[in-house]
């Protein structure tokens, strides 16, 4: 528990030791020092980020409730498992890369069968260090058989349907080595494969296994100093340098609408939602871009994402391998909850490598320990998930009630206030809605509520205000006339006397 | 007289060339110094109120980090630094201005900021997101006006050519950077000396 809150505490310590100096810098440069980060209450172990970038306490949304390794499952221990996938019927497929097999469990973690070999042209064939797998809705199994440089497609009865190897295209170099590492399959049975050493994006294969194109390449990023060096170097020096290449993707997932969710190893802009044209359409309306931890110490470094999992209602989770945390965002990009961590305790990992959802439960695969940790929702997590679903499906009444319930459990969840505000706005409670939008720092909706509120107030008070104004004006005019009249009489009497 | 004093800033911001000239050569030094302090005070008050009471749509200040005392310091310190830097430079560069004159002209140059931004603190509570363009337009207008007045004021006080004024203003900003660095260095050293002395004291006390 203390481990998870380690980050803000460390940040606070470093501020304390250099407090006078930092205060002075703040004085001189006109910046405010740190701000007081809310201390995590003793009872809550998770956290979230406020609008101001402070770490605020949050209750646990998920709790570890089960730990499964190869021995307890009766399959012999896992050896460097790389990927896991939960099929639509709840069956769990674990890719035990080191043992070159796929272990299939049912939804209750009972062993169903182990796929170690399949029949290929009449002869038995096996995998060689496979890295990724995908299971379609009708339980067809796709395996990125990296060591054999091919993708293997088996049906629900483990019979070979197709092998995809040696993709041919003018887009590929002649000496191209096809090493698929992760893959997903869409509803039309198109395969999107992430291959090592490919910088042009994901490789898209049509349903008959022919390579069609690349999709969604990362953009090349380089710093100005790197660019300057390159400009100043000679050609011989340049040839020694590392080329500017786009970063490789680290993982991908596909949602029910066929949008690809992809992660890469960059420190920011590291989650993408790709449409059919390969454009990034991820919504980033949250307080911070959806890229894991906002505050981190320089020694720990930024988040490094290794897996992404998307579920219904546009909610998606990303797995950070540098701190072993799982961050879940809603479709707008607001951070919902964080759980996990590196360590030796129950619910912590050594080398987390893959996550997937089984209903609302999370399965986290640890590569080094060969274990699967099962996380179940708490009351808070369930309420928040349901609130998000109701909001997504447009059931504002239900969402309103659920967000209220969520806030009762976690007053720090700022974006939930906006959900309440939207319901109030629809009900015509503009002033009340404004209050809630203010709490969630939602300026867009605040402005909408404010415009309606202003109109309402104007309608209500305009007659009274206008009547008073006209009455006042009339009194002033009358008084002036009266004074002029009196003044003129005086003047005329003086004139008369002079004459 | 007091009525004159009240009206003068309005005359100065609309007729800067004559205004700064009279400020330097014709008006009572003491009276204008008092006006300058009043304007500076109003500027500080405006900043504090702005951070606290500006409309939600244009206010991006974390209320938890607000400290009125520090807000005032953030206004006074840069003005002071500017005056010192400008004075130090212009003394070496044949400027005719005295420190008091620099200070007075600087403070008067901030009058449009007070004049425009103060009413907008309250007006900003009555505008929608689309209407914030007006808010930012007026804030920018006041800033540009202020910089323009600073420029004219500096030029008049030191009897410089326009190009030389721009040069000194840029150099003053650089000098402010140097001053900030030296102050930091000084405070850091003092802090270490104090820490050193207190450690020695503790050593003595604990040994005996």
TrEMBL record, chain B:
It is a multi-pass membrane protein. Coiled coil: none annotated. It comes from the Bacteria. Keywords: Membrane, Transmembrane, Transmembrane helix. Signal peptide: none annotated. InterPro entries: Yip1_dom (IPR006977). It is found in: Membrane. One of its GO terms (cellular component) is membrane. Pfam families: Yip1. The keyword Membrane applies. Residues 11-183 form the Yip1 domain. The chain crosses the membrane at residues 31-49, 69-87, 99-122, 134-153, 165-190. This is YIP1 family protein.
């Amino acid at each position: 528990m203390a481990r998870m809150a380690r980050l803000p505490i460390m940040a606070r310590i470093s501020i304390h030791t250099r407090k006078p100096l930092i205060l002075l810098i703040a004085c001189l440069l006109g910046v405010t020092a740190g701000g007081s980060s809310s201390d995590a209450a003793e009872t809550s172990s998770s956290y979230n980020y406020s609008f101001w970038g402070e770490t605020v306490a949050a209750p646990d949304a998920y709790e570890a409730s089960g730990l499964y390794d190869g021995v307890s499952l009766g399959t012999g221990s896992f050896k460097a498992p790389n990927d896991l996938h939960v099929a639509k019927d709840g069956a769990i497929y674990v890719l035990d890369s080191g043992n070159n097999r796929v272990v299939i469990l049912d939804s209750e973690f009972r062993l169903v069968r182990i796929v170690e070999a399949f029949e290929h042209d009449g002869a038995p064939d096996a995998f060689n260090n496979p890295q990724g797998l995908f299971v379609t809705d009708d339980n067809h199994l796709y395996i990125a058989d990296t060591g054999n440089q091919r993708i293997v497609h088996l049906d629900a009865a483990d019979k070979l349907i197709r092998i995809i190897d040696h993709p041919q295209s003018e887009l590929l170099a002649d000496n191209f080595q096809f090493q698929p590492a992760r893959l997903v399959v869409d509803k039309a049975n198109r395969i999107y494969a992430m291959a090592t050493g490919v910088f042009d994006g994901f490789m898209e294969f049509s349903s008959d296994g022919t390579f069609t194109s690349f999709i969604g390449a990362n953009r090349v990023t380089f710093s100005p100093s790197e660019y300057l060096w390159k400009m100043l170097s000679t050609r011989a020096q340049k040839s020694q340098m590392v080329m500017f290449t786009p970063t490789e993707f680290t993982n991908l997932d596909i949602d029910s609408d066929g949008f690809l969710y992809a992660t890469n190893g960059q420190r920011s802009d590291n989650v993408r939602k790709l449409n059919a044209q390969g454009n990034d359409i991820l919504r980033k309306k949250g307080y911070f871009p959806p890229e894991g931890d906002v505050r981190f110490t320089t020694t720990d470094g930024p988040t490094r994402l290794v897996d992404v999992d998307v579920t219904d209602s546009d909610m998606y989770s990303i797995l950070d391998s540098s701190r072993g945390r799982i961050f879940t965002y809603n479709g707008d990009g607001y951070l919902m909850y964080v759980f996990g961590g590196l360590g030796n305790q129950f619910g912590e990992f050594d080398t987390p490598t893959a996550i997937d959802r089984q209903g609302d439960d999370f399965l986290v695969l640890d590569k080094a320990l060969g274990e699967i940790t099962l996380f179940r929702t708490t009351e808070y997590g369930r309420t928040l998930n349901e609130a998000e679903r109701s909001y997504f499906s447009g059931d504002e009444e239900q969402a309103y009630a659920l967000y209220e319930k969520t806030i009762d459990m976690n007053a720090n969840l700022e974006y939930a206030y906006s959900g309440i505000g939207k319901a109030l706005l629809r009900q015509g409670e503009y002033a009340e809605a404004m209050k809630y939008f203010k709490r969630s720092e939602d300026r867009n909706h605040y402005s909408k509520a404010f415009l309606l509120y202003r109109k309402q107030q104007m309608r209500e008070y305009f007659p009274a205000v206008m009547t008073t104004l006209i009455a006042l004006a009339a009194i002033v005019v009358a008084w002036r006339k009266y004074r002029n009249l009196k003044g003129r009489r005086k003047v005329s009497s003086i004139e008369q006397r002079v004459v | 007289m007091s009525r004159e004093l009240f009206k003068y800033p309005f005359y100065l911001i609309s007729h800067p060339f004559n205004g700064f000239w009279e400020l330097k050569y014709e008006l009572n030094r003491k009276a204008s110094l008092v006006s300058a302090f009043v304007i500076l005070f109003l500027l500080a008050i405006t900043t504090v109120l702005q951070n606290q009471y500006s409309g939600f749509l244009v206010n991006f200040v974390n209320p938890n980090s607000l400290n009125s005392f520090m807000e005032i310091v953030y206004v006074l310190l840069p003005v002071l630094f500017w005056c010192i830097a400008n004075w130090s430079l212009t003394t070496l560069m044949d400027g005719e201005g005295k420190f008091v004159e620099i200070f007075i002209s600087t403070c008067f140059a901030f009058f449009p900021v007070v004049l425009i931004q103060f009413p907008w603190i309250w007006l900003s509570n009555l505008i929608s997101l689309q209407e914030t363009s007006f808010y930012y337009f007026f804030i920018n207008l006041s800033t540009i006006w202020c910089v323009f007045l600073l420029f004219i004021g500096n030029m008049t006080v030191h009897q410089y050519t326009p190009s030389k004024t721009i040069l000194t203003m840029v150099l003053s900003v650089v000098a402010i950077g140097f001053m900030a660095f030296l102050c930091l260095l000084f405070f850091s050293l003092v802090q270490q000396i104090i820490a050193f002395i207190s450690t020695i004291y503790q050593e003595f006390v604990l040994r005996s």
